[in-house]
Amino acid sequence: MDVRLTAEQEEIRRTLRELLVKRCGPQELRAAERTPAGYDPALWESLALRLGLPGLALPEAYGGVGCSMTELALACEESGRALAPSPLLSTTVLAAPLILALGTGAQRAALLPPLASGALTAALAVPGAGLATALGLAGDNRGDWAGGGRAGGVQARRADGSWRLYGQAEQVLDGHSAGLLVVAAHTGGFARSRTLLFLVRGDADGLVRVRQTALDATRPQARVELRDVEAELLGDDRADVPAALAAAGDAAAAVLAVEAVGAADRALERTVEHVGRREQFGRAIGSFQAVKHRLADVYVGVQSARSAAYYAAWATGTGGERVGALALAQALEALRTAASEGVQLHGGIGFTWEHDAHLYFKRASGDELLFGPVHRLRAHAADAARLFDGGEVTV
């Protein structure tokens, strides 16, 4: 593994950082959160048209740039630094890889070009609050999380030559605004019980989408209700959907890890800047040894998480071992520590909910709720690797 970034990768980081510094400061971020979509459409258009971000990791044959997940992860590191609200995660990291992996030739040709251009956004909808389990990050995704043949979850039935979906999905990232939903649903009853993925247009009859209040408003979420909604099967009914979800989950975890590292690095920078200005007893509080030690520990944690996240992104891009969940656990832990220390060391102003330091604290907490928690990510990875004499890890 060559740890040096190429000139192209450095250019991606530099260009994106310049854009986000100008267009996504704390005030712009809060204004974007209050919009119906939960993000600034003009910024998304710039990211798509100027930088080609939605299609960065998609093949050129489908209108993409043809880069690897490593380049996409580096781009997400910059969006993580700014906590930029956009449909990049839901569209490019979660939904598009599944369409690329499982879709028919016609489905890929019809959907991937508008996804790559940013003209179409997408969201992955899984039942309940089991996104981490569905992606194979915090549990076995071959279980009954999609419905299990009983009431609850999302059920798919074939009638009159078409598929119909019934049920509800919670915590769907950008589910209220996405033009396309990739829905995981259970079908087959008890005899041929299995989970399949379906495509649902955002304007489909019987589809009800309600934006939910989320701890981290930079990750807008929705409740999606499917009331006898017509859907199109993604690929065919012989596809190994759990395996495809697990592969997409590992890549998504690597990208999320790099993104969390970017947020943690910026949270640390902001704290260092503050303790260098804030004076107590006639000197900057950053000059006190106790403060230096605390920030040094945060710095070591961030750099260690960066190394793990970069390796996970590289391994994903080269088809190597799957270590995304472990890298994500380390990155989320580093972000939580950096955000918590930032709140503490900002003193009285840091404890006010409206202070910018809490934006990073909310991102750390929100990501753990969506993709963790950290101990479950590590426990499942240990169980999958059979580290404890082949026994299961109890959490």
TrEMBL record:
Full protein name: Acyl-CoA dehydrogenase
Transmembrane segments: none
Cofactor needs: FAD
Residue stretches in coiled coil: none
PANTHER family, sorted: ACYL-COA DEHYDROGENASE, ACYL-COA DEHYDROGENASE FADE28
UniProt keyword Flavoprotein, yes or no: yes
Domain Acyl-CoA dehydrogenase/oxidase C-terminal stretches: 254-381
Family to which the UniProt record says this protein belongs: Belongs to the acyl-CoA dehydrogenase family.
The Acyl-CoA dehydrogenase/oxidase N-terminal domain, residue ranges: 6-118
Molecular-function GO terms, alphabetical: acyl-CoA dehydrogenase activity; flavin adenine dinucleotide binding
Keywords (A to Z) from UniProt: FAD, Flavoprotein, Oxidoreductase
Domain of life where this protein originates: Bacteria
One Pfam family hit: Acyl-CoA_dh_1
InterPro entries per UniProt: Acyl-CoA_Oxase/DH_mid-dom_sf (IPR046373), AcylCo_DH-like_C (IPR036250), AcylCo_DH/oxidase_C (IPR009075), AcylCoA_DH/ox_N (IPR013786), AcylCoA_DH/ox_N_sf (IPR037069), AcylCoA_DH/oxidase_NM_dom_sf (IPR009100)
